[in-house]
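Repro:
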Amino acid sequence: MTEVGVSSPSTPSGLGETRLSTFLLTDIEGSTRLWETHGEVMGAALAVHDRILRHAIESRGGTVVKTTGDGMLAVPDLPRDFPPLRSLSTRRSNLPVPLTSFVGRERELAEVDRLIARGRLVTLIGTGGTGKTRLMIEVAGRVAGRFPDGAWLAELAPLGDPGQIAPEIARALGVQEVPGRPSLDIVSDFLASKELLLVLDNAEHLIDGVAAVAERLLAVAPGVRILATSREALAVPGEAVVQIPSLSCPGGQHRTRFVVATAAVDFDEAVGTEAVRLFAERAGAVEPSFELTVANVEAVSEICRRLDGIPLAIELAAGRVSAMSPQEIAVGLGRTSSPDPG
């Protein structure tokens, strides 16, 4: 925290009047490590962090000048007649760095990339656990370089009221809010001359509010494109909707017995499916000795089919290979023993 003198306009004597102001700069210690190890909860934690700081500053007469990623710049006794500061961070993105490799979804990647190039609003829809957010982040990271002003993510999941949508977008963009002025007006003015990708994650619980905000921003900011995830479409004119399905799984019926080294599932077919590739990738991350083999491919295939190819469920199952074999995991998912073939 630093205190500096600020000169006011000249007095009748011709001398500037000096007064003391306090500048506060905050930062979260070790934030890079926290994003790497707890990326799934850091967005929500950062939103709480910002609310607490903003309340503490403003309740004591201070002004938040700028949010700086995971910190803030604030001043007490700042003259109120200064124009609001409007500038993006020196970074060109606030997208989280993925902690795991991206597996599969080649068709969906190509389709979303094509739609972003052609249209201005693309919404990825699907049931929970299908990997909409992970696909969104992958696409946004790949296309961010096309936008001079970068790609910026606003996390909507922690929000409980439509009135919080525009302030959260402002926070994600690093835009200063002005007391007494609607956040949506401030964000609209800020984006009017920008060329960027705005990423809105988890819109389903605020669908009408998100739709209204998206329609307003697209109307006033011709250089802005929006990529959103939701369980249903926003129903905004010009919206392109991409249904995100479950991952591809090996074909065949559910089996009830696993015979070592005698796999009924074709090995090459299995390893070519997205679900099996994802299981093998995540299992190898938690248990380096894990390897997909002829002996376990049938069990892994059964796991993937039992979990309907849902990425989140498959990742959770794969995380158990350090304590259980794929055959044991499959049994735990509800498989019953087959009748005696004799």
